[in-house]
Amino acid sequence: MPALCRDCLSEFETGTRCPTCRSPRVVSHDELWSLSIAHMDCDAFYASVEKRDNPELADKPVIIGGGRRGVVSTACYVARIRGVRSAMPMFQALKLCPDAVVIRPRMQAYVEASRQIRQMMDELTPVVEPLSLDEAFLDLTGTARLHGHPPAVMLARLVRRMRSELGLTGSIGLSHNKFLAKIASDLDKPHGFAVIGQTETQAFLRPKPVRMIWGVGGATQEALDRAGIRTFQDLLRWDKADLTARFGGMGDRLWHLARGQDKRRVSAHEPMKSISNETTFFEDTGDPDILDGHLWRMCEKVADRAKAKQLAGRVVTLKLKRGNHSQITRRQSLGDATQLADRIYRVARNLFDQVGDQGPYRLIGAGISDLVAEGIADRTGDLLDPNAGRRGQAERAADKIRNKFGPDAIIKGRSLR
Amino acid sequence: MKFSIERAALLKAVSQAQSVVERRNTIPILANVLIEADGSDVQFRATDLDIEVVDKAPAQVERAGATTVSAVTLHEIVRKLPDGALVTLTDDAATGRLTVEAGRSNFSLATLPREDFPVMASSEYTTNFGAPASVLRRLFDKSKFAISTEETRYYLNGVYMHLADSEDGRALRCVATDGHRLARIDAPLPDGAEGMPGVIVPRKTVGELRKLLDDDDMQIAVSVSETKVRFATPNITLTSKVIDGTFPDYSRVIPTGNTRKLEVDAADFAKAVDRVATVSSERSRAVKLQLDEDRLILSVNAPDSGAAEEELAVAYADERLEIGFNAKYLLEIASQVDRENAVFLFNSSGDPTLMREGTDTSAIYVVMPMRV
């Protein structure tokens, strides 16, 4: 059975230890040299960056998250042992792990580290599909001749390089499609390397719960439960037609996934679907002026990002979270797509007024979706709002000033609230 | 309750009822139609709490009474019965079922008690007048395309029916707009309408009303209060709440200083717009109009899919002008023209454009241009 040492990268035939360097970190699999779809997932990415930049934290539980009231965005492995999980409310995390060092996210540092990793991945293949700052799919099909080594070796080299040059570790999942690669990267975390080959795909999946499927959230899970589908084994009993009839497009996908089939290509240019921003307040508030100020700032951020990406949206969304964490979302379609903060804000503000709830709220957010190119946005004026055109021009002028003199060179009074 | 009724009469009454019933509603009784048999008539009543329709049909009533039954199911059954069938409906209080019999077909439907059926509170109507169906049809048909679907501007989700001073004197006027286009339609003031409060008739009501207006000679009794509006024929009564909001002051929106005049055959124009717009797959397709000395060039340029151009002979004597519009908006207003040429009045490529039929000012349309 082909085997690979993840430390010295020697390729050999069998054995649990590397014949060259005696390392036990060996991965072996019958299809090791032929599989080429991979998923790379950094281990506790934000926390690892913090630990790297501040070695004193190395053996301490570290939680990255938004202040006292936010949620855990990343917990290091020390904190995870104590039961802290990402997306857990901060107060609960601190109850489980009172001595944790809580660090506010330093996005710039993470973006920089992510960019460096991306560069390393780009050297392996042109087909890299980033899912977020810390994970990506890679398709290395047909690169073996170019690199002189099969994909598995190049992936092991990638994580070795990440560790030596950036001080960050990642886990690799190697398989024959995206669905299985993503599952594999989670099997041997942290700093792992897991392989799922064609031959064992079915046997591997059969006893696994269907919630493993990426994209099966609460609602789908419930629907599957009602149909008596808990594991892939259950799923295999269903006809394709019955699944499609019951779950629509998702049903067809489930049928294929149950058989370990996933036709989605790793695509380097996945188009963006929406742009949104939200903020959790330091203290719950129902004060309309404060909320209005936050709403404006969120809309402005959304507009800034849309303008940077040369995109505009046909749908404006408002998101609110009450003190008790219940969530309200409202959306409005526009006849004419927009990327202007002024228009996004006015629609979001109308949506907010129609919610008609005094709060208090803990979070407010705004976003645009159904994205289109900016060239076909903001083209039709509003008969009932003749000043909209001039406000749009003012915003464009202010953008030019901010581009030249910095983001704070000119701001709306509204954003000071 | 037991009565027999001709299938066609029953179908007509029930189909009106089932279209008022909301498809997705959480209150079971609102899915039902209230059937009341008394004397020589049967009444079918349906509501979504905002609109109520009562349809009266002659029937042979054997036993008076009332019950409620699913409007959609009853409609489906009656629709599938053979033409000319005599349908007998019998309510069995003991089992709580309504039996529907026609020929050899027999159906038994679950009912809900009539007491649970919400009947719309009657209103004090301040204005009552009569208008021919053809007049109302013109007012609403020509304005409804401009109704907004934006729920955040709920006061635009209907047709604003009110009184106004037109060039031809006092008028009953309907206005609708979604901020991109506006329609303003006038009709001579019917007797007795003076003093009518302006009301915003909701989109759904406008749709239901249309079914009362097919017969040109039918006189429609219109009743209006601040909160409700009612349209009635001898057999059908449609009552609706009006939208509780203030319709914006549209008069400021209607351009008065547009001098550049284009005259074009509306049908030719609409066909040309439709043809050139084919090349673009965008949802908001922009058509560019280039005007020059009796010549109009329509063009669409969609970088991803292609380009199209068409020339039309028109009457235009002003200076050169280039202006863009949403193809859908142009098509919609052009299709409102039915007798004469369409007259467009432009100002600049950024200002609202006005369209009317010949010299007729009783129906005018305003449309916002699009940057191209």
Automatic annotation (TrEMBL), chain A:
Protein name per Swiss-Prot or TrEMBL = DNA polymerase IV
Could you give the subunit structure recorded for this chain? Monomer.
Site feature (Substrate discrimination) residues: 46
Which PROSITE patterns does the entry mention? UMUC
Indicate the secretion signal residues: none
Q: Where in the cell is it found?
A: Cytoplasm
Q: What is its EC number?
A: 2.7.7.7
Instruction: Identify the residues that bind Mg(2+).
Output: 41, 134
Location of the active site: 135
GO cellular component assignments: cytosol
UniProt-listed GO biological process terms: DNA repair; DNA-templated DNA replication; error-prone translesion synthesis; SOS response
Q: What does this protein do?
A: Poorly processive, error-prone DNA polymerase involved in untargeted mutagenesis. Copies undamaged DNA at stalled replication forks, which arise in vivo from mismatched or misaligned primer ends. These misaligned primers can be extended by PolIV. Exhibits no 3'-5' exonuclease (proofreading) activity. May be involved in translesional synthesis, in conjunction with the beta clamp from PolIII.
Gene Ontology molecular function terms on file? damaged DNA binding; DNA-directed DNA polymerase activity; magnesium ion binding
Q: Which family does it belong to?
A: Belongs to the DNA polymerase type-Y family.
Catalyzed chemical reaction(s) = DNA(n) + a 2'-deoxyribonucleoside 5'-triphosphate = DNA(n+1) + diphosphate
From TrEMBL, chain B:
Domain DNA polymerase III beta sliding clamp C-terminal per the UniProt entry, residue ranges: 252-371
Subcellular location(s) per record: Cytoplasm
Q: Which UniProt keywords apply?
A: Cytoplasm, DNA replication, DNA-binding, DNA-directed DNA polymerase, Nucleotidyltransferase, Transferase
Task: Indicate whether Nucleotidyltransferase appears among the record's keywords.
Answer: yes
Gene Ontology molecular functions: 3'-5' exonuclease activity; DNA binding; DNA-directed DNA polymerase activity
Q: Which InterPro entries match?
A: DNA_clamp_sf (IPR046938), DNA_polIII_beta (IPR001001), DNA_polIII_beta_C (IPR022635), DNA_polIII_beta_cen (IPR022637), DNA_polIII_beta_N (IPR022634)
Query: Tell me, what is an example of a GO biological process annotation in this record?
Result: DNA strand elongation involved in DNA replication
Name all DNA polymerase III beta sliding clamp N-terminal domain ranges.
1-120
Report domain DNA polymerase III beta sliding clamp central positions.
Answer: 133-249
List cellular component terms (GO): cytoplasm; DNA polymerase III complex
Pfam families given in the database record: DNA_pol3_beta, DNA_pol3_beta_2, DNA_pol3_beta_3
Question: What does this chain do?
Answer: Confers DNA tethering and processivity to DNA polymerases and other proteins. Acts as a clamp, forming a ring around DNA (a reaction catalyzed by the clamp-loading complex) which diffuses in an ATP-independent manner freely and bidirectionally along dsDNA. Initially characterized for its ability to contact the catalytic subunit of DNA polymerase III (Pol III), a complex, multichain enzyme responsible for most of the replicative synthesis in bacteria; Pol III exhibits 3'-5' exonuclease proofreading activity.
Question: This chain belongs to which protein, by name?
Answer: Beta sliding clamp
